[in-house]
Design brief:
3 helices, two-stranded antiparallel ribbon, alpha+beta, globular
Length: about 260
Amino acid sequence: MAPSKNPDRENRDRLRRYTARQQVHATQVARRRRDNVLAVVAVVVVVGLAAVSQVLWSTSGPGAPEAAPSDSPSASSTPAAGENVGDVPSDTIAEGRTWTGQLTLNDTVDLGIELDGAQAPQAASVVIDLIRKGFYTGTTCHRMSNAPTAEFIQCGSANGDGTGDAGFTFGPLENVPADGVYPAGTIAMARSSDPYSQSTQFFITYGDTTLDGSTGGYTVVGRVTSGLDQLEADITDAGLTPGTSETDGSPVVATTITGATVE
């Protein structure tokens, strides 16, 4: 004879099994929700990193940031507005006088240069100090523009890609053209939108260039006195590889500063 069944025990067992299944189901639902949230977060992070990468490229080189394609020069640093950051060389180094020197690109392009210590004492002092310390030798000219109204090549990035500096950023803007015109041969400091974001990067115009002055313009630190035709023949005439636009990218001829002197 089969043993008799206990209805109460069966009900309790059934309830325990049901409760266990419910708990398993709830755990699975929670896990799926968690996985979905992690997937969304991962997508957001990837998109964010892509945006940051674009910003870093956009803000590298001479002038204002290029969140939208622009022919203006830009620098990567973003300091607190209106103040120097780091150990900025003293503005007395330039001694209020004109300095002469030479900038050599790719061992073959020799540019005679003048730095205006009277009109741009802070910027000139920075460039003089960096040249004396050998900072520029081995750095690249990573950016070029060949737009009809913006012909320049940008140099002096510590990392060779528009990012990095010498550990400082400085202002104020000095010797800025009132009409926004930077004649061929102008040497000016690159920066982002803040006037105190100047650091090591500079740009050389190889054609008459007009730049947006809505954020204050760019410090003219000096000029090229000879060799501009050589710069064009050996480097800029070869064109550029488009970056932020068809007229703004990197020079086709890889360009490195192989020497810099000043006296």
